[in-house]
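Supplementary Methods. Inverse-folding protocol.

Structures were first reduced to a discrete structure-token string of length 146. This string, shown here, constituted the complete conditioning input.
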């Protein structure tokens, strides 16, 4: 029952978001084929469909999370908030590197492997987005190098 209540709340939010995406968001120009107007519309539609699926077919098993698991989830939420806050000042590459390193350690990787994972994820992600997809990502601390 809790799944359906949660999915119903998400559906209301997703429908409001979709309404805003289709009626309010108007970009003066579009610099790529999809443009800035398409992503909010797509996100709203997908979120609505996922919420409807959860209402129709909720999970039948109960969430059996102990206090340690809930604590780790709270830490992940704090990490994501910090990542979002530090994204522009530190830049995509550095903030992603730090986040992925911390997340890897949290998931049980050795510090060296987590550091390598963070380095590869941040670096490959930055250059894939900026060079291949031609997206503008903040360089932050590495502005003079990148």
């Amino acid at each position: 029952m809790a799944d359906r209540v949660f999915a119903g709340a998400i559906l209301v939010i997703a429908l409001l978001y979709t309404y805003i995406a289709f009626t309010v968001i108007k970009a003066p120009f579009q610099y790529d084929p999809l443009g800035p107007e398409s992503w909010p519309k797509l996100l709203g539609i997908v979120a609505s469909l996922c919420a409807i699926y959860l209402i129709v077919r909720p999970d039948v098993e109960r969430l059996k999370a102990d206090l340690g698991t809930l604590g780790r989830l709270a830490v992940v939420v704090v990490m994501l908030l910090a990542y979002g806050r530090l994204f522009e000042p530190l830049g995509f590459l550095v903030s992603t590197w730090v986040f992925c390193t911390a997340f890897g350690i949290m998931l049980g990787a050795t510090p060296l492997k987590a550091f390598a994972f963070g380095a590869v994820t941040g670096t490959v992600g930055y250059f894939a987005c900026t060079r291949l997809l031609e997206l503008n990502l903040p360089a932050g601390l590495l502005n003079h190098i990148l």
